[in-house]
Amino acid sequence: xxPKKRHLPLKALLxxxxxxxxxxxxxxxxxxxxxxxxxxxxxxxxxxxxxxxxVIIILAHLSTLYQKGDTKRFLLSIGFxxxxxxxxxxxxxxxxxxxxxxxxxxxxLHMNNYIILIISVAAFNIMYYILEWKTxxxxxxxxxxxxxxxMGTTIE
Amino acid sequence: MKRQQLAxxxxxxxxxxxLVATLTIGNLFTITTKGITVYLPTEEDIHWSIDxxxxxxxxxxxxxxxxxxxxxxxxxxxSAQLIKDNKTPLMRFEKRDMAALRGSNTTYELLIPLNLDxxxxxxxxxxxxxxxxxxxxxxxxxxxxxxxxxxxxxxxINVPWSPPLLxxxxxxTIQQGLQGVYSLLEITQNTSKASFSxxxxxxxxxxxxxxxxxxxxxxxxSLTITSYSETVKNVTCHIIVPVFITSSAFEFTVxxxxxxxGGDFMFRFQEVSVQYVS
Lengths: 156, 278
Known about the structure:
Largest interface: A-B, 43 and 37 residues
Largest sheet of chain A: 2 strands, antiparallel
Number of strands of chain A: 2
Distance between the termini of chain B: 84 Å
Oligomer: heterodimer
Number of strands of chain B: 13
Structural class of chain B: alpha+beta
Order of helices and strands of chain B: HEEEEEEHEEHHEEEEE
Number of helices of chain A: 4
Helix content of chain A: over 70%
């Protein structure tokens, strides 16, 4: 069931701004403004952000093509949430600990709690998508039964 | 669940997802651009002095935290341990609950006291006499963004140690006498690990003449070796280290019996004392 939508839906537009344009701008700004920082590290993050953000945008866009309650929309939304988690995880360095050199000394940044926060938010979003799917699916079924009864009465 | 309630959940979920994504970008920006940086002291930044009133060796240094991030850095705790080259811990120091406010460059001064009463006599003598490199093991922990991100650092900084006693005299006899006494004490701590050079150093004491050496500034070192019996010697060492600031002195006296008795090696302390005399 594909409703006619010619423009980029709001969800996809927000996703484009938040997951691609802003981080990419930040990364390019860091790359240009801080030439002393390891260039490879920044480039690796840019190469990470572009494809993962594209996947997120496509999933966001596709999910809006289906009605709420549709299983395909539900699965695409779950995929969208998982993809955002992967995006963040990669942007943070791909691990729970980042090692950084400060003034010739080595420092570690432990992100365990931060990762827990990301997982919690993702879980909350998944919970929403489950509720949306269940609620709208039930309503759609009721609506279809109601429509069938109405049509039957008219034929009679 | 009603659709209206679901819409509220949707708004909350969207806000949370957006917030976390923004935080991720913000943190990435702060961390990669070194918006948060800790400057630990180098070898040259660690100074020490002797405080005679407190009977302490005081190590002084600083470390600073630059926090140009959005949040305060809380719960900064530093734990330092000073160890000798043979890994013997001399002291442990802890300072907790410091904070670096956002947008600030904060310098923390550290005064790490080493109370001479709390370390073993051998370590005390070693510090007074032996040129060595001490190691300062520093552990730093801090929390950022309400504890969501934790910073840790474990570093080892060398502290070159030039003993005060060594600076008082260049006389080789005095040096030899001190070395002998030190080796003697080292052997008493662990006789099974006595090296050949240690033993040679101890027995070289017997060949030394009676030493009595006093410098103009009041430092005094005297070593007297007398016969206790035919095979046992009584070695008495008396060292006075003046403290110039308060016109007082540390007096160190050790008297031991050393030799062979009944076919066995004998070593017995007669007297050991360290006193602060004003």
